[in-house]
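ok new one. same drill as before - structure tokens go in, u give me an amino acid for every spot. 449 of them this time. try not to just spam alanines like last time pls lmao
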């Protein structure tokens, strides 16, 4: 089932800027000297030295793929080796005798992770993997009953989300075709209008059981107004959750104050915590002490005061910890600890401030090249408004297509290609520089000329 409105089709054209945007970026220069001045004035510039950059290319790379896999913090190797040493030294007793006891390892991450997503410590836990956590949460928060049995999501969500939502619906004996409402861009457009999301919530107000949307769309880089969506969902009696895979560590989140019911995110994109690394979960505190909520239980979610008595009957822990299944995957959490310490030192306010400036400069560089190359072959689909995006810019590569991407890769640009013709780039504020943005522009101009 889909919901969209018709508007006249949009012409395809090279990326053009409105006059206001020219005024907004008039202070910028597309030069190496200017980019270096910005880096010299950047209060977060020294954090770049805390990460390892790929060395497989002959020259220095421009790493713009933090929205797929973040760079490795230098302390990851140290922290994992410490756990390997403690394993060798203590064996099973490492659960209590290691320098960071494995029994409570996840608790070291909770406070720092809560700051990243704007939650209270008891609303957050780090465990499992992203889609696993989404399923565990939807078991509790998607409870179709009577005619209130539909899920609302954005069209072209990340495939894993799509599969998870469809399988949750079929698990309850329902049909995704009838019970999954997908909000698509209007005809001829690429971004979803938020008024269309709110209108669909109102349209299906008596039928919605749950709303589950990606906070930042992985393909376009569009950031949705999660607070407004949550408010609208609650007004019609639906539960509201978000997949924050492309938002956590990227967007300034405030899940508690936004009154979000649940959320999950991965640790390996903007949070730089190893391939397929551990995931975080948020459950609002109003659900913190609700043993009546249906859930798939595991012993690590059992009340830790009596967990080792191993009695029958599940008694969930207070807060998000009650959704845990198994004991901590320590080596993955060690990598996450190394990254979260960096986030804690930098602070999300400063990270967000640099994110906006860095992305704006990269956008300016692309626009400058576009203006000076009338036969340009790209256009940016990501919103221009900084309140509607994070660090990602998605570029249509018209004409050259994959050839353009391959040539950029040969020059040392590490980015992401999505069919049919989209290059996704993400200047991550903790380790990317303004000079990276300038160099990307130089490579882009060399390729298209």
């Amino acid at each position: 089932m889909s919901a969209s409105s018709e508007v006249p089709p949009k012409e395809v054209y090279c990326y053009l800027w409105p006059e206001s945007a020219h005024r907004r970026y008039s202070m910028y220069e597309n030069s190496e000297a200017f980019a270096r001045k910005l880096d010299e004035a950047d209060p977060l510039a020294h954090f770049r030295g805390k990460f390892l950059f790929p060395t497989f290319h002959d020259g220095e790379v421009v790493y713009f793929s933090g929205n797929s896999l973040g760079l490795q913090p230098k302390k990851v190797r140290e922290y994992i080796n410490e756990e390997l040493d403690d394993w060798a030294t203590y064996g099973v007793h490492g659960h209590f005798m290691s320098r960071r006891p494995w029994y409570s390892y996840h608790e070291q991450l909770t406070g720092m992770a809560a700051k990243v997503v704007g939650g209270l410590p008891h609303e957050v836990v780090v465990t499992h993997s992203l889609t696993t956590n989404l399923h565990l949460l939807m078991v509790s928060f998607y409870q179709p009953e009577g005619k209130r049995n539909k899920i609302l999501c954005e069209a072209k969500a990340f495939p894993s989300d799509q599969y998870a939502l469809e399988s949750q619906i079929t698990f309850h004996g329902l049909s995704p075709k009838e019970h999954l409402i997908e909000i698509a861009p209007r005809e001829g457009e690429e971004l979803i209008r938020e008024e269309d999301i709110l209108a669909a919530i109102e349209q299906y107000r008596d039928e919605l059981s749950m709303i589950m949307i990606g906070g930042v769309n992985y393909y376009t880089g569009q950031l949705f107004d999660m607070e407004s969506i949550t408010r609208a969902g609650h007004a019609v009696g639906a539960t509201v959750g978000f997949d924050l895979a492309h938002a956590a560590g990227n967007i300034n989140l405030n899940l508690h104050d936004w009154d979000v019911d649940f959320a999950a995110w991965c640790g390996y994109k903007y949070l730089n915590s190893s391939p397929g690394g551990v995931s975080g979960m948020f459950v609002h505190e109003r659900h913190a002490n609700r043993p009546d909520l249906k859930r798939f239980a595991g012993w690590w979610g059992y009340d830790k005061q009596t967990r080792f008595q191993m009695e029958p009957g599940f008694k969930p822990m207070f807060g998000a910890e009650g959704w845990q299944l198994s004991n901590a995957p320590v080596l993955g959490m060690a990598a996450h600890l190394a990254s979260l310490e960096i986030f804690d030192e930098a602070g999300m306010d400063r990270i967000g401030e640099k994110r906006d400036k860095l992305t704006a400069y990269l956008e300016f560089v692309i626009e400058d090249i576009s203006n000076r190359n009338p036969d340009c072959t790209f256009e940016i689909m990501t919103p221009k408004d900084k309140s509607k995006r994070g660090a990602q810019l998605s570029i249509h590569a018209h004409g050259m297509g994959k050839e353009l991407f391959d040539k950029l890769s040969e020059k040392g640009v590490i980015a992401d290609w999505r069919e049919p013709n989209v290059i996704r780039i993400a200047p991550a504020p903790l380790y990317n520089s303004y000079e990276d943005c300038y160099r990307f522009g130089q490579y882009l101009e060399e390729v298209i000329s």
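Confidence is low (pLDDT under 50) at residues 4-23. and btw The radius of gyration is 23 Å.
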